[in-house]
Every structure is written in structure tokens, then in C-alpha cells.
Amino acid sequence: MFHCDVVNLKISKISLERATDFIESHKCGASLFFIGTVRDMNNEKEVTGITYDSHDKMVKKSFKEIYEDAIKKLKLEHPVAFVEHVKGYVPLGGISIIIAVACKHRSQVYEFSRFIIEEIKKKTPIWKKEHYKGEDAKWLEGQQIQIKK
Prior knowledge:
By secondary structure, the chain is α+β, with helices and mostly antiparallel strands. 30% of the residues lie in helices and 40% in strands. It contains three helices and eight strands. Helix 2 packs antiparallel against helix 3. The longest helix has 19 residues, at 56-74.
């Protein structure tokens, strides 16, 4: 089972409750939540918030491919994943991404969650504009996206 979405903060909000409800399964003996939040410092600058932008259709496609790759590479049993990333302005301490996973065994959830977040960073078209205290906001350089062949 898999759910993914890009949550436009002008319309909705990201929800830990929705993630919890989605991953509940009697087939799974372990679940794990990864919550990404806006931190206060980056590159020695005081961050006050981040604006995220994305190509929503491509982001969802990327999330689905990452989920499918994880199942194959990690040989997961009864995998369930919920992935949502925000689009819009997130203040300091605000949640930017939720990854909730469940599997048959605890060792699998750690690998599964880690695989998803690391692959999102490599393959998903999400852009960040950091807002700084006393300075102009700046779009951050990302890493080159790895295209699946």
C-alpha cells in the first residue's frame, strides 16, 4: 500500500494523523515516522523559514518509483508507505515532509524509511528558497537529479 501527495499549504496542511491512519496494518509488526522540519541555521546563516516549490506531477511519479524501487531492492514484506511533502512557505520548526512506513519486521522499517528520504533528495524535483534573518531570501542550489534509465 502506498500514498503520496504534495500538500499545497495555501489549500491544506500536512497531517501526522493521516499518516498514522494510513499505515496501520495487522500484517505489520513495526512502523516508523520520519518528520522533516525547518531548522534554524544553514551555511552559517540564521534561517527563519523555507518556501518549497515543486513540479507536483513529477514529484508524485518520483515518490512512486522510489517506493517500487525500495520494495525490490530491500525485499520488503507487507510494505506500507505514506509520503507527503509540502509546497509553500514553512516557518522555523514547521514540518516540510512526513514519511511513515510499516513492514513486517523492525529492521525493515529503518531501511525503508532511510531509502525513501535519501532517494527523494537525489531524484525528486523539489526546490527550496531559504528565508534569512536580516538578509534576502535565496533559492538554494540543489543536487543534479538522477534520471532513471
